[in-house]
Every structure is written in structure tokens, then in C-alpha cells.
From TrEMBL:
Keyword Membrane among UniProt keywords: no
Pfam families to which the protein is assigned, alphabetical: Rubis-subs-bind
Gene Ontology terms, MF aspect: protein-lysine N-methyltransferase activity
Domain of life per record: Eukaryota
Organism: Guillardia theta (Cryptophyte)
Protein name: Rubisco LSMT substrate-binding domain-containing protein
Residue ranges of coiled coil: 111-138
Keywords noted in UniProt: Coiled coil, Methyltransferase, S-adenosyl-L-methionine, Transferase
Any single GO BP term: methylation
Ranges of residues in domain Rubisco LSMT substrate-binding: 280-328
PANTHER family for the chain: SET DOMAIN-CONTAINING PROTEIN, UNCHARACTERIZED PUTATIVE METHYLTRANSFERASE
InterPro entries xref list: Rubisco_LSMT_subst-bd, Rubisco_LSMT_subst-bd_sf, SET_dom_sf, SETD3_SETD6_MTase
Length: 345
């Protein structure tokens, strides 16, 4: 999936504008909307507390419900059908991977992050099914509101929804923006990505570089690490300057394990303080801890390179790319700590 320039685009030129009526966000499910009225009726019949309402009918959940209602409307074709028709059916985020595929991420915190997210999504779906969906099957059709479809819609939300400030006084709001979400990612100094033009009443994008006709257009998705790109977008970026490795740092309380993302250029303040609390020789202690993390991977970088030289399954390739990047980063972090190139303890 990608977007190609039909004509030459100049640096700084407005090249995509998506008007308000094509956007899909919380305004579609705001108080008083058709879906909101149906949900409030169910909530009252179930005597669901305000706290439970906020959790079950979160902004994200309501947008996902609206999305599935539009996609699986048996009465009339949705306005967004052309958009739905080009949505990918095969998503590559680790929440869609099998357990065997997740095992390929052994050593990386991403494997457990994916397992936790899968468990959370399953629990939320089960609760929504019992407390909301089954109480109005004319609206929440069984064939539409399945676990598989809920996972799929959630995956699309995580990979495509953009936090857009539509200048309504509500700050950034999660919004599906057709076409704009088809633009692939590339590293860029321009971090604005998508803006809202109040005069045009549209979500807009300006080119951060010149693009020739027939060439694919790219945009930055912001300052994200590869674990974020893989977990939420389903890809791994080569040469990502914002990359970091999630590392667990236990405390004296065995249940209290904190995680921080450590990069080759910066040791988080909390990690430096943790190392000081563990040993008088905090730097050596931190290096040993990171070396132990490094030994947790089952393959070497050379073995990963050999795998990547062959044709392997897409999810397997993504796992190999991520673990390879993490090992390379950990090696560089250890090297930089040893030679004093990183502020430590």
C-alpha cells in the first residue's frame, strides 16, 4: 500500500486535502448521535455504573463500533465503502501473530507486549459482547461484531488513526483520514505530518520534499522507535534515528519491574538512578545488566543476516529485523558506556 504522485510536487506544496465530511472520528459518536442513543439505552437497561461506562464506552471503543457498523451495514452501502474496499485484510502487527511467530521475538520485550495486548483486547471484546452487543443484535450483528473483526478494526485503528487537532477546543482527537493514511513512512526532519486547515475545513498535508511524477510519496510518522512501529503499525524501519530498546529494570520488590526504552545516544534519567540504587559501581552494574539482556536473544546478528538474505514469511522477517536491530543497538549502548560516550551514573 502506498501513494504515488500523479504530477510533480514541489517542496512545501499542499498535495492532499481531505474535507471534514470524509473524516471518521469521535464526532460521529458524540452525545446525541444515533449510536450514542442506542448505547445509552443499553447502559440504562444494564444499570452500568458511570465508571464502567467510561471504560466500556471509551472514545476508542465507540469509534471502533461506528467503524464496524459502517462497514457491515446490511441496509445500505456506506459512504466509506471505497475506503473500506482498499483496507488491508492481512495486518502484520504482532497482536495478529501465532505463538510460534512470537517466539521468534524471544529476548525482546515486544513479544510479551503483544501477548498482553492480545489478552487485553480479548477480555474487552468478551465484556462488550456480554454487556453491550448481545443486548441489541439488530444493531450489533453477530456476523459483524466477531472477535476477529474486533481485532482487525483495532489493528486498523492503531496503525491508521491520526491524532488530529481540528481546532474545536478538544485538542487532538483520534481520526480515520481516508487516503492520507495510505502514505507510507520515511524519516524526516518535518514532524508536523498532518495538519488541520480551519479555512479549508480539511485535514491537509504539505510536501516536506520535492517529489517527481510517478514517484511514491512518503511522510514522517513522528519520533517513533521500531518497537512502536512494529507493535502498532506492523513494520520495522531501517536506520531509524529514534530507535531504542525496551529493557526491564527490577527493584527490590520482585513484583515491581519497570521498563524503559534505552537508545544508543541517551540513558534515561530513571535508569541512571536505578543503577545508582543497585551498586556503588553503577556504571559497571548497568553494563552487566544490559549484557544479560543481550544474551537473552537466541540468534546472533550473523544468523539474522543470513535469514534475511533468504525468502522467509513476512511475520518471520519482521521478527528477525526487529531482534537484529535491538541486538545491534544493545551492542552500541554497551560500547558507548564502556568508552564513556554516554552519560551514566
Amino acid at each position: 500500500m502506498g501513494t504515488t504522485a500523479k504530477d510533480d510536487i514541489a517542496d512545501g506544496e499542499l498535495y492532499i486535502a481531505i474535507p471534514d465530511h470524509m473524516l471518521m472520528g469521535p464526532e460521529r459518536v458524540e452525545p446525541g448521535s444515533r449510536l450514542d442513543k442506542k448505547l445509552m439505552k443499553i447502559v440504562k437497561s444494564q444499570s452500568i455504573s458511570m465508571q464502567e461506562q467510561r471504560r466500556l464506552l471509551s472514545e476508542k471503543n465507540k469509534v471502533l463500533m461506528y467503524f464496524l457498523l459502517q462497514m457491515y451495514n446490511p441496509k445500505k452501502e456506506s459512504f466509506w465503502k471505497p475506503y473500506f474496499d482498499i483496507m488491508p485484510t492481512n495486518l502484520t502487527s504482532p497482536i495478529f501473530w501465532s505463538e510460534d511467530e512470537l517466539q521468534e521475538l524471544a529476548g525482546s520485550e515486544v513479544s510479551n507486549m503483544a501477548r498482553i495486548e492480545k489478552k487485553r483486547l480479548r477480555a474487552m471484546y468478551d465484556e462488550l459482547r456480554e454487556r453491550i452487543f448481545k443486548h441489541d443484535r439488530k444493531t450489533f450483528l453477530k456476523q459483524a461484531f466477531t472477535l476477529k473483526n474486533w481485532f482487525w478494526a483495532n489493528g486498523l485503528y492503531d496503525s491508521r488513526v491520526i491524532q488530529l487537532n481540528r481546532q474545536t477546543g478538544h485538542g487532538n482527537v483520534p481520526t480515520f483520514i481516508p487516503l492520507i493514511d495510505m502514505v507510507n513512512c520515511i524519516e524526516s526532519q518535518d514532524k508536523t505530518f498532518i495538519q488541520y486547515d480551519k479555512k479549508l475545513r480539511a485535514a491537509v498535508m504539505y510536501a516536506d520534499r520535492a517529489v517527481s511524477r510517478g514517484v511514491q510519496v512518503f511522510e514522517s510518522y513522528g519520533n517513533k522507535s521500531n518497537y512502536e512501529y512494529l507493535l502498532y503499525n506492523g513494520f520495522v524501519m531501517e536506520d531509524n534515528p529514534n530507535d531504542c530498546v525496551y529493557i526491564s529494570f527490577p527493584s527490590s520488590n520482585a513484583r515491581d519491574v519497570r521498563q524503559f526504552c534505552v537508545s544508543t545516544t541517551e540513558i534515561p534519567y530513571q535508569v541512571r538512578e536505578w543503577a545508582k540504587s543497585q551498586s556503588k559501581d553503577a556504571k559497571s552494574y548497568l553494563i552487566k545488566h544490559i549484557e544479560e539482556k543481550r544474551r537473552g536473544y537466541r540468534t546472533t546478528i550473523a544468523e539474522d543476516n543470513e535469514l534475511l538474505s533468504r525468502t522467509i514469511r513476512e511475520n518471520h522477517e519482521l521478527a528477525v529485523r526487529l531482534r537484529r536491530h535491538e541486538k545491534m543497538s544493545l551492542d552500541k549502548i554497551i560500547e558507548n558506556l564502556n568508552r564513556g560516550a554516554l552519560q551514566c551514573c
